Amino acid sequence: MIDIGVNINHRHFLDDMDQTFIDMQEVGVKGMICIASDLQESRKIQTLSQNHSAMWNTIGCHPHQAKTWDKESKSHFSELILSARPVAIGETGLDFNRNYSTPKEQIFAFDEQIELATEHKLPLYLHERDAHKEMVEILKQHPNLAQKSVIHCFTGSRTELDQYLELGLFIGITGWVCDERRGSELQAAVPHIPLDRLLIETDAPYLLPRTIRPRPKKNHPKYLPWVAQEVARLKGISIEELTKATEKNTDAIFGIRV
Question: Belongs to which family (predicted)?
């Protein structure tokens, strides 16, 4: 299985990268996609991924960081794409929950990253919180791109899921699904995700699956099997079937074959 969402630029991992890979591969996690939140982090993660065969990277500007996006940003990211091709543009999108950047700033940065993805034929790695309606309206204008992009860390309702699936999006599921209280709505939605649209991720070091005992302090790619087990249970399929499907989907969207 492949973890499609790791925040690798964190002391929890950077202190011992080699051990991170050993630990995850021992439990059957063959590789990970490391996600970026701004230009500086995109450059750093890209350098890291060049030194590890089981690591791939995105480049992009998180909606929290959209206020840093200026008239030069698009050209800087375009140069970065050409120097060492990432697997996606992101983490990009809209987050109206905390509004660390204004909605106007977020939409501007998102629109420019959509242009980047279109120009360079890359999928979008999408973040959305409390901005579902606006996200859908924007993606409706880019149907071909939406069909090869992913909603990262989906935690929404069945209605929101159906609207994303109508756009053709892939759906990323994290350890949120292992939380009986906070994840109850997501647990009800997961059985309705077609296998050919399903991806799994940890979002490590965040969103630790609450089913792990004893409970660690931080999440890690090695805990992806807990996400896989819960998703497989909810869908009524085996871990083997889930792994085969999600690896096929990872290849389809990101071009990663393991």
Answer: Belongs to the metallo-dependent hydrolases superfamily. TatD-type hydrolase family.
Assign 209 to helix, strand or coil: coil
| CA dihedral sign, ordered 51, 56, 59, 61 | negative
DSSP label at 216?
Answer: P
pTM of structure: 0.97
Burial annotation 221-244 (CB, 10 A radius, 16+ → b, else e) = bbbbbbbbebbbebbeeeeeebbe
**Which domains are seen in the chain, by residue range?**
2-254 (3.20.20.140)
Residues in binding site for a divalent metal cation: 91, 127, 152, 203
Q: For each of the chain's 258 residues, which pLDDT tens digit applies? A: 999 999 999 887 888 889 999 999 999 999 999 999 999 999 999 999 998 999 999 999 999 999 999 999 999 999 999 987 899 999 999 999 999 999 999 999 999 999 999 999 999 999 999 999 999 999 999 999 999 999 999 999 999 999 999 999 999 999 999 998 899 999 999 999 999 999 999 999 999 999 999 999 999 999 999 999 999 999 999 999 999 999 999 999 999 998
